[in-house]
Amino acid sequence: MSSGENNTLLSKVALVMVVAIVVSAMRWGPDVLPRTKSTQGEVLPVEATEQHVPPLSKYMEQAPFEESEWLDKHFKTPVPAQGDAPEDWPEITGSLQPEQCGACHPMQYADWKESWHAMGMGPGVLGQLVDFDGKNDKKVRQCNRCHAPLAEQYPYLEDGVENPDYDEEMRSKGLTCAGCHVRDHERFGPPKEGSPLSGAPHGGFTARDEYKSSRFCYGCHDFRAGEGLMGKRFQETYEEWRRTDYAARGVTCQTCHMPKGRHLFKGVHDLDMVRSGFTATANANTNGSALTGQLRVENTGTGHRFPTYTTPQVTLVMEQLDASGTAIDGTRQTDAIGRYLAPNLKTERFDNRLMPKESYALKYSSKRNKKAVAIAARVEIWPDEAYRRLYEIKLRKPENHPIGLAEVQKAHELSIASRFVAWEQRIDLN
Question: 229 in a domain, yes or no?
Fold first, then answer.
């Protein structure tokens, strides 16, 4: 492709990005209202900007940190290359491909295929990494550590040399079955009831109780010490859980995210999962032409902060409705629950996430529009909001992503499409 053709392509992508942003604003409204400008010119909610929840050291531990030399070794990444399977094993038995695992484990494979573990190397991650391949980039290795941990999924070794064990097809499959269950062609899994099958494929499996422990998830869902701000790691879900009643009662990560051993791994992208995690209440009052109200959200069913991690945003919305049920322009007010970090990850704009039994409220105050007959209260979930902001920054300089540009654009579109309404209520005005 000539430089002129390439510039034309980049211009078209930039135009598509602008259109996507405009469409998003039409459907979902601005990022947050009411507005205030930070010193960096970003738009933030007024109430939340004053919020900075304390580090976890301020919360009492309800369960001890579970030490496990086996898990520390099991999740040392990259997971060493498996090498050749035993000669007497048929191909399907020694394969690391998830599809082959699914031949004997169809339910687990069907669950995994639709899960976010399978999307570990989706367009957002892969689109950013491919332009750094071969450059011995530390970020590539950091992302691969959890998103695609097998040595066979690393195109280059740490010294920038091509990896002889690299499997391009495996890279795109994210966190595969082997990422959790296979080491040196030995299969591991949770203890099962009954006697092992006689003549089981791949020599059976080694049972480990760690597969039933929340500690199993720690390696990927809690960032390393020092990776954070204001005494809080960028992600520390296991540590959050240890400071909740769920940990005290033995309600593990697997209890909610892998019920009955299912490999669904549902989380903030799933409507039913999110609905089970919070309770919302709303009210509205009129006094002459003045209209006030409140939308409160409480963490009543999530065994860690709601939301955990820095990516999602819970958006609270209240707006006046006319007789046809249409939102009246200029009456929408919103706030947000989440942890908002600057794009360079060096500043925390706000953090008002909720530990169990904590709550946060949008306080509505406005003049009642003469057409208003009701007020709508709504809780919207924006699962990929931090990524959406990141993709838009990257798409402003498409020349920095000549290989992964189309994937980043796709990821941006998906980050907007992932939004959904988790709760809503209409309050009629007397």
Answer: no
- The answer on 181 and 305 residing in a single domain is no
Over the range 357-380, which residues count as b (16 or more CB within 10 Å of their CB) and which as e?
eebbbbebebebbeebbbbbbbbb
Distance CA 201, CA 192 (A): 16
**What are the tokens at 165?**
């064990």
Q: Are 223 and 233 in contact (CB under 8 A)?
A: yes
Does residue 417 share a domain with residue 290? Answer: yes
Distance, CA of 368 to CA of 429 (rounded, Å): 10
Q: Are residues 19 and 81 in the same domain?
A: no
pLDDT in tens, 154-213: 998 888 888 999 999 999 999 999 999 999 999 999 998 765 555 678 888 899 999 999
The model carries a pTM of 0.88
How confident is the model over 93-124, as pLDDT tens digits?
Answer: 899 999 999 999 999 999 999 999 999 999 99
Which residue has 């309770």 as its token pair?
A: 279
The whole-angstrom separation of Cα 17 and Cα 23 is 10
